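Example complex used in Figure S2.
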Amino acid sequence: MKKHHITLNVNGDEYDALVEPQQSLLDVLRDKLMLTGTKEGCATGDCGACSVIVDGVLQCACLMLGVEAQGVHVETIEGMAQGSDLHPLQKAFLEFNGLQCGICTPGVLVAAKALLERNPDPTETEVRYWLAGNLCRCTGYDKLIQSVLIAAKEMRGA
Amino acid sequence: MTDLRYEAPNSLNAAVALLTEAKGLARVMAGGTDVIVQMEMDQSEPELIVDIKKIPKLRGISAENGGFRVGAATTGMQLCDHKTFAAAWPGVIDGVKLIGSIQVKGRASMGGNLCNASPGADSVPPMIAAGAIARVVGPNGVREVPVERIPTAPGKTSLAKGEIIASFFLPPRPKGSGDAYMRFTPRTEMDIAVTGVAINLTLDAEGVCTAARVAIGAVAPTALLVKDAGDALIGTKVDEAAIEKLVAATRAACKPIDDKRGTKAFRIEVTGVLARRVAMAALERARGNI
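Predicted assembly (448 residues):
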């Protein structure tokens, strides 16, 4: 099968990879670039565990082919903390128990970050609708939503 | 899996040529939120994927002859974020907003939603009600096709080999126009329509309905334009008697299946309920524009 050479920027670092046309961006991130923070839940766009931001747009890494990623900028969970300084969302999730088993957490954090960049002061309803595509099988939704609201408040300096 | 070839041409002609010359199964891909899933689930094993997102004009919204030209690969989020378009066609946006999650809308397009030809595609009834025209480009030139003539059966379209939907034209909006779409689902988000109704209507200065188009989704093998339902409103002030006729005509047009998401009888009943609610929503929006 013909492989495609792609170069892409992930969290500010340049990477290159040889990808087969059927491989998803999720496969490329996890198996080629060894960035395993982005999780695979369903691989069909239903669960949001693989949420990443591509050129500023929140999407599921499983719903994009790796070959399409030539030249794009990708933001993943690995880029959220600055060294040992956690992002306010990460701090809020730790402090207010916004996670249980943790498998959905990277996707939820990336999706919540994308929301707060668009809307720094969302209502609870807005958070719930924005995160409707992120499934939590522990069903810890309430603490997760509250953690996002607390982080948003913190980030507004309120 | 057969060897898959990926091409991302930068012109429509090149895309049409690739599709026309393909020997095995070739799929057009815009956002890929159906195509990639079908490949992942082994429901589709294409030999060629033609990614149309690199073609200029296939992504984006522009003004044209008083209406809008929408590139077929324009994403749901681009549509929702386009203030002028969203203000002119709130009913189309009602439908687009219901396509999957925020993540899915970051990729998914109305062109893909239409060509995937699911009877429950949420952006299709409002586009039909809007009178949207698809510009189809293929090896024999360009055709302008009303959206309701694109899907022919679940998963099937009237597009010939080599043809691509390049864009949609949404006509100019007279004063006093309003549109709306609602669907019934057990959950509010991340679900598939059990039934859906879109209505687009125009009122004159006296509040008399001068034009109305009604479309239904998920209650027949394809979304349908229900002419009788629209006609029931024209010439009236969309009063109770007109609404009763609208509801009856909408129910009469349903040809639903029984399945796990709803029985025939339930779907027909709820389609009528939705028709009433959607008419009220479209009416309110139209009155806000007189």
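Residues 98 and 141 of chain A are 8 Å apart (CA to CA). The mean pLDDT of chain A is 96.
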